[in-house]
Amino acid sequence: MSTPATTTGPTPAARRARHPLMHWIMNNGALVGLIVLCIALFIATPHFLTVRNLLNIGIQSATVAILAFGMTFVIVSAGIDLAVGSVAAFGAMCSAYFFVEAGLPGWLTLIIGLVMGLVAGAVAGVAVAYGRLPAFIATLAMMSIARGATLVISGGSPLAAPPAVTALGADYFGVPMPIVMMALAGFSCWFILSRTVLGRSMYAIGGNEEAARLSGIPVRTTLVVVYSLSGLFAALAGLVIMGRLSSALPQAALGYELDAIAAVVIGGASLAGGSGKASGTFVGAILLAVIRNGLNILNVSSFWQQIVIGLVIALAVGFDVLRTKTKL
Asked: Residues near 204 by Cβ (< 8 Å), separated by ≥ 6?
């Protein structure tokens, strides 16, 4: 007796081979959206594609992009870091405090600011990895602690920035230093994720933490390093903000953690972990800056701008869900 033949649909690989352009668009939705948006704004206003405005976009996106590069490590590892905005302010305030109150050299206080951000991230990482606290709770607590410490150190008042930090906000030969720092941070993120054992471990932990542990990856140590890197990048962003303003503000980078998370998600990373890349995060940060810049040029109310940003984030998450389903 013959058995009936069974038919199955095309495999995901076959579908991708059949529609390579659609597959590329699905994996580069943020870049496609950025290109379409730039074309639309170019048509809508002649002021968009000018050198001055493009440099403004680069400067506006620099701090969010630096924060987002650090956030990429965390999200790839299936975590979340709500403290990056507060840690940015904390690192900058520590740098200014040791310069103003202790009289330390500017270059040394710059290093101190970075180290303080790294330490704050490491503390959150220890709470997640060894204390087994949910990342949301651990980083929410660090967000409050870091912001409170910033207010205590400063007494609620701005402090002058060290000259070495002020240089991070200056222009050299027509090139703004915030853009240079963003490029360096982006290269570092790309290198760590794609060229190091640490980066491969992040992807493995984000994909399946238990499988990563069974394969010999030191999961707890890696998570501490992940959150330490996020704190280090956050402190760098805080120093760039202080360099632009020539002073450390207690309320600096307030709410920036949401923009950082949005940039990573818009760039194609999954909040479930295991996916994400530096180039996508960069595109996500630029896309957010272009949206805000374009709406400002078109004189759109800031209230409506928040609605537009929220819709973009919702679309990005929905797009990620759709992309994930097509891979199954």
From this structure: 211, 212, 215, 217
DSSP structure class, residue 248: E
- Can you give the residue ranges of every domain in the chain? 47-327
- Architecture per CATH, domain 47-327, reads as Orthogonal Bundle (1.10)
| Residue 292 vs residues 59, 159, 214, 231: alpha-carbon distances, Å | 13, 29, 45, 26
Tokens of 170: 């200056």
Q: Where are the alpha helices (DSSP H) in the chain?
A: 12-18, 20-27, 29-44, 51-76, 84-100, 106-129, 135-154, 163-166, 177-195, 197-207, 209-214, 219-245, 256-266, 278-297, 302-327
Tell me, what DSSP letter sits at residue 115? Answer: H
Please, are residues 265 and 317 in contact by the beta-carbon 8 Å criterion?
A: yes
Q: How many CA atoms lie within 13 A of 197 on its CB side?
A: 6
Long-range CB pairs of 98-104 (<8 Å, 24+ gap) are 99/159, 99/160, 99/161, 99/162, 100/159, 100/160
Q: What is the pLDDT of residues 152-182, one digit of tens each?
A: 999 999 999 999 999 999 999 889 999 999 9
pTM: 0.91
DSSP labels, 128-147 = HHTS---HHHHHHHHHHHHH
